[in-house]
Amino acid sequence: MVTKQYDKIFSRIVKSKQIHESVLFIQNRNGDFSYKNEYGGKSIDAPLLMASITKLFTTTCILILLEQGKLSLDDKVTRFFDNGKLNGLHLYKGQEYTAKLTIAHLLFQTSGLPDVSEEGKNNLRKRVLHEDMNITIDELIALTKKMKPLFAPNTMNRSHYADINFYILGQIIESVANSSLEGVFTSFIFEPLGLEKTYLVIDEDDFIPSIYFKNNALSLPKYIKSCRASGGAITTAREMMVFIKAFFGGDLFNKEIFRELEKYMKLQISFYPIQYGGGYMRIPLGGFTMFFIGKGELIGHSGSTGSFAFYYPEKDLFFVGDVNQSANPATAVRMAIRLAVSSK
């Protein structure tokens, strides 16, 4: 019966004129229940852009380095940057907070920094719709300095989703591990899990799937290569399933560490009903959520291109997939919610 519900939900999603391809893969922890559905030639072994699900890779690396004793969540961010590069990054109501920013503020999205990817009249998302571009971490920091922070770090009892937080975390990982980010991803995640089709884009010649915006298939090799720790990884639904099980199953780091991450705050209203914890999203299902009533929660991450990877502890189910539509990435979140609610 539940597979019929999954069929119905998937069919409803792909009937949209904006959905040109989609893939859905569902399993329980031990894999004795498995369901997949594919549309538009997108199989569970086809490459897909993880987009912001890449942040789970970045979070994994931070947690492993934390477990190794090489950093602390309370470490000041400026410790990892030379020559005052970050000076003026967080100037709020005339007061400089940059020196007070910690790794925890970045990981929990409580830094108060603005999001140059999505905010402002000429944000990066709008610009790349017209022209593919490279952008460096120094350029991202400079753009962020031109915008106003939303609040002082760890105040207002809320979080504000901003890609710059994870761009900076990527730089910190490279500094602490004394390795390139792709090297750290490989040694900490890809090799231990046997992920052979998952990689961080490091060259414009690396294969990068097209990204749909409405009916337009965009090729953005320069921009995706620039996204790195915030959104630059490629995988398949099958390998994303392996990773999300490992992430929440304690196969990559001590599962007890999650107790430090289970502090959730509401994101800006455009992300409703999503909350943010230590490097991952939480969607509460215990009340009215997107017009559905369910039990428990979804934890994981979604991406701005319609990718998603969530764990539903209430039924011990994992949902991964992609709808590949950057004009309406909330479609993926709504599908994940419907799947969870229908999992009787």
Report on the architecture of this protein.
- With 344 residues, this protein is α+β, with helices and mostly antiparallel strands.
- The chain has a single domain (2-341), classed as DD-peptidase/beta-lactamase superfamily (Beta-lactamase, 3-Layer(aba) Sandwich).
- Helix content is 32%, strand content 17%.
- It is built from ten helices and 17 strands.
- An eight-stranded antiparallel beta sheet has the order 2-1-17-16-15-12-11-10, with helices on both faces.
- Strand 1 and strand 2 form a beta hairpin.
- It is globular, with a radius of gyration of 19 Å.
- The chain starts with a helix and ends with a helix.
- The model has no long low-confidence stretch (mean pLDDT 95).
- The CATH H-level homologous superfamily: DD-peptidase/beta-lactamase superfamily
Structural class by SSE content: alpha+beta
The backbone outline, from C-alpha atoms, is: globular
| Percentage of β-strand residues | 15-25%
Helix content: 25-40%
Q: Major sheet: size, sense and barrel closure?
A: 8 strands, antiparallel
Strand runs, count? 17
GO molecular function, one term: hydrolase activity
Protein name: Serine hydrolase domain-containing protein
EC number: 3.1.1.103
InterPro entries: Beta-lactam-related (IPR001466), Beta-lactam/transpept-like (IPR012338), Diverse_Enzym_Activities (IPR050789)
